Amino acid sequence: MNPAEIIARKRDKKILTSEEINYFVLGYTKGDIPDYQMSALLMAILLNSMTAEETAALTNAMLESGDQVVFDPHKPIYVDKHSSGGIGDKISIILAPLMAVCGLKVPMLSGRGLGHTGGTLDKLESISGFRTDLSIEEYKAGVESVGCIITGQTAEIAPADRMIYALRDVTATVESIPLICGSILSKKFAAGPNSIVFDIKCGNGAFMKNMEQAEDLGRNLRHICQAMAKGSAYLITDMNQPSGRAAGNALEIDECVLALNGQGPDDLMQIVFSLGECMLNLGGISAGNEAIMQQMAKIEDGSAFEKFLEMIAYQGGQTKAIESGKPIAPAKKIISVHSDVSGYIESIDTYRLGRLIIEMDGGRTVVGQQIDLTTGFVIHEKIGDQVDRGELIFEIHSSGKLEDSYLIKAFRECIRITNEEVSSPELIKSKSI
Amino acid sequence: MNPAEIIARKRDKKILTSEEINYFVLGYTKGDIPDYQMSALLMAILLNSMTAEETAALTNAMLESGDQVVFDPHKPIYVDKHSSGGIGDKISIILAPLMAVCGLKVPMLSGRGLGHTGGTLDKLESISGFRTDLSIEEYKAGVESVGCIITGQTAEIAPADRMIYALRDVTATVESIPLICGSILSKKFAAGPNSIVFDIKCGNGAFMKNMEQAEDLGRNLRHICQAMAKGSAYLITDMNQPSGRAAGNALEIDECVLALNGQGPDDLMQIVFSLGECMLNLGGISAGNEAIMQQMAKIEDGSAFEKFLEMIAYQGGQTKAIESGKPIAPAKKIISVHSDVSGYIESIDTYRLGRLIIEMDGGRTVVGQQIDLTTGFVIHEKIGDQVDRGELIFEIHSSGKLEDSYLIKAFRECIRITNEEVSSPELIKSKSI
């Protein structure tokens, strides 16, 4: 096989064989195929696309470029969940222990904040001592004994994906559905799950701005999972406003504690339970209403919260602050933002809210940057809510670095209020199980 | 400006500005932009194409990456000719001195054999002592004093083209009309002509297999020349059989000597005179029938042949063998191939004839390879000719390395003979002046 001939075949819109894809990806990982041939192939893939079978072969090749965790491929209970990213999206942190007490094993490798969105690992690190750098052995043992683990990717997992991702970033080949799917799935499946539920966020706070893009991603992820003989389901959920009320690292952990104690906001819990239902279904545990009731019961009886504490303890985190029910990492100051008019909330600039957290050092502008885990906001009114002049809309949790007046103005600009009644958006826009 | 953003614009089918193209090409030549970004851009160009204006900007950027020869931009007499390559195509070697005695200056940088086709430099090197490595100063002075020079590209001419060409070869980005045109024209115009006549060969012995491809290349070359404010014209000429009778390096020089002494085969001379007419027209010397008559007269009176000897002498070659009229570099053995049937020649596998010369070491399979300048063939019957059983069709000029019986069989297989009358092909298929 010859790299230039493989590039030529994709250039000419031919379908690559899994042997060709393997040869290329493994040759690249070993350094036998240079960057310039890989980048030519990536551009040809971006412009001429790939079938689900080709993308499955690409995913497998990247997955096989490094260490793979294998639990029991015959037991459906190893189920993961992946979100395409949004604001206030703390759902993984609630779902992992909840699913574990319902009978699943949840092997979850998560990431840092990306673009304007927050990252699960950053949020968990606001729990004092919590380790997101477990070794593969610690991770594997934790999934089996605790039932759920949320940790970071190790260097040994899918090194081809890491190399290709870095190259895509500088060669304008990021925006390709097959390459995006391959990157997500190679990391996810290297961590050992037998199936995955995808939460595809759609709206002005998500990467997928419209239903067409979201459905396209969802369909592709499912086709590739099918081609890889893995279970999958996806929900498309609304991201035109933050999930729940809290956004920002430590603030979201506080909200997870509330949620696991039965006090989660309705919008957040509805998505949690729907995703949980899909996971339990894929895991062969329960389905439909039964799956919803099972989850509610596990929150009611405190066992989901207990499991959360157990996971934190296993990963080296201190549970005392969590158990106290108090904010785990309070910000220097809380600034209240009140409405200056009366009316109905019509829309929320969710993207800008995400950028404002980053401005308050709650997210990164450069890889590896230290962040301030205490900053963020709590939103008290959502789309469709009626507000009176002077009513509290936001509490901004600030480090004091930025002027209060600047923040108040900026947050106020993120909310559009109208005189006419507005209905609140459908939370779950589409479901494919 | 940012390389990834420029790649993204071409990926998204945008038209690049000449500033962007300059920045990219010069950055790449200086080593500031790495191979992997250039190869991603090349693939995007191949798949999304470029306008004539973009290609003109690309050509200018490559041309400006190195030394440029400038004669007198206001004198139209500096005219070059470029062939897209074929078998037995020795036309440049006849035209250069012929045009010089007609009043043009012919500044010609030529190349080696490419693929199955021969190269003008290789052919000229069968003249003992002939130098194809003139310095830019020697070249420039020769064009002015002799009136025509045929030499090789120096390292200082269009280094960007050389770097990009090497990268295209290994990234499956050769087959792109804008990239092919940019490569041809940057080298050609760096050598100083004010206009160029293109001889686009079309047929089973050429790179362009059909009229659509040939017209596409011709139109593109003209549009780019227009965008560069350079004069141009093109002919599409038949390459379904060798040009003239001789193919192979030294054998073609022998045929050039015949041609410049008024004994050239009709098919060859018809194309020579038509291209010459275009060149004289662009140079403002003569046009139409007058230009044809002028060329014939310069052959008749011996001055074109004298000019050829003058060019050879200027470039260090020995003229004695040329003047003797004998073969300049006879092969070890000549094998006659006779027809085994009677009929009319219907078709000739011209591509395979080219490959057979390479098999006889008359061309390269690897860059830099030493070749045997004595091998090749003379073809005595062409398409449409009637042949009798036992009549001489080929004389194979062999080094004896390959078995005679193998060569006879192979050459015979290149000729298809039919019982029905066949008309000879139109030599000039299209003309754009």
Cα-based radius of gyration of chain A, to the nearest Å: 22 Å
The largest pleated sheet of chain A is described as: 4 strands, mixed
The residue fraction in helices of chain A comes out at 40-55%
- For the largest interface in this structure, which chains are involved and how many residues does each contribute? A-B, 25 and 25 residues
> What would you call the shape of chain A?
globular
Instruction: State the low-pLDDT regions of chain A, or none.
Output: none
CATH topology of the largest domain in chain A: Pyrimidine Nucleoside Phosphorylase, Chain A, domain 2
The helix/strand class of chain A is: alpha/beta
Number of DSSP helices of chain A? Answer: 17
Strand content of chain A: 15-25%
Measured between the Cα atoms of the first and last residue of chain A, the distance is 40 Å
Name the average pLDDT of chain A. Answer: 96
CATH superfamily of the largest domain in chain A: Nucleoside phosphorylase/phosphoribosyltransferase catalytic domain
The SSE order of chain A reads HHHHEHEHHEHHEHEEHHHHHEEHEEEHEE
Question: How are the strands of the largest sheet of chain A arranged?
Answer: 1-4-5-13
Q: How many domains would you count in the coordinates of chain A?
A: 3
What's the CATH first level of the largest domain in chain A?
Answer: Alpha Beta
Structure summary, number of beta strands of chain A: 13
- CATH architecture call of the largest domain in chain A: 3-Layer(aba) Sandwich
Assembly of the depicted chains: homodimer
